[in-house]
Amino acid sequence: MKRMSTGEVILNGFFYVILALLIVICVYPIWYVIVASVSDGTYVNSGALILLPVNMKFTAYEYAFSQKQLWVGYGNTIIYTLGGTLFGLAISLPCGYALSRRDMEGRGLIMGLITFTMYFNGGLIPTYIVCSALHLTNTRLLLIFLGSVTAYNIILIRTFCSSSIPDELREAAFIDGCSNTRFFFMFVIPLSKAIIAVISLYIAVAHWNNYYNALVYTTDASLQPLQLYLRHLLLMTTGTESIMESDANAEVLRLVQTVRYAVIVLSALPIMCLYPFLQKYFVQGVMIGSIKG
């Protein structure tokens, strides 16, 4: 094993210090939210909480679990995330694969139109008018459809299929009598697990974190996702009249800040648990096709 020079040791040490600082910058906010959610609200509100929980209690979680709108929002978010992910994959995968085929007529024009939408769109008001004319406002379908299909995801799938699905495989399958549809389901999808995992994560995270579409296109509280409920908590003033409809006392006043942190933890936990299972596909799915050699 080659011995490192003094300069290399110093350089490596510098990189480790930078890496440690980046880890602290990324991890500490998450740690603080978790610690604040189980600490006494008095210390959280006063800014005395720094690293470890103070007077640990789970009152904030108990209060959050008692709120009906939290569970309604959780259920809606799960529906929108699962539905939007399935819908997005059902549209993006065939589209991306078709655009990767060199024998597809007009694929350059279609790709140009799709790329155009990455830079220009009709804006909020025309979109709202179209959705209203289609009677999609105040419906679950609208929140599932919006944002599920993006030009960026289609381009990723197109690039992946261009580099990972060889023409020779398709030609051999066609010689054996395989149709386009059968080839897509029997060969393309099994060979595209990496990019499917990546696109699924992209769409799922976008839907899970989205509150703006529900804010603009819905007025029915029973349709609102968890993130919109979290937004209401974050925008509440110290008066907190809206959160204390049934229990306006000093204890709840101290709980306001910790309830916010508790709901943040509850809303982020599913995605944080899902990501490690998809991480092994993440780099592979994004990077395949990015380098031509």
Helix content: over 70%
Which class of secondary structure composition applies to the elements? mainly alpha
**What is the rounded distance between the termini?**
31 Å
The H-and-E topology, N to C, reads as HHHHHHHHHHHHHH
Mean model confidence by pLDDT: 82
Total beta-strand segments: 0
The value of Rg in angstroms is: 25 Å
Q: What general outline do the C-alpha atoms trace?
A: globular
In terms of DSSP E residues, the strand content is under 5%
Largest β sheet strand count, sense and barrel closure: none
Description of the structure:
The chain is mainly alpha-helical and 293 residues long. 71% of the residues lie in helices and 0% in strands. Helix 3 packs across helix 14 and helix 4 crosses helix 8. The longest helix is centred in the last third of the chain and has 38 residues. The protein is globular, with a radius of gyration of 25 Å. The C terminus is likely disordered.
Give keywords.
mainly alpha, disordered C terminus
Write the layout of secondary structure elements.
Blueprint lengths: L5 H32 L3 H6 L12 H7 L2 H33 L6 H10 L7 H10 L6 H6 L5 H14 L2 H9 L4 H12 L1 H17 L2 H6 L8 H9 L15 H38 L6
Concise synopsis of the structure shown:
The protein is mainly alpha-helical.
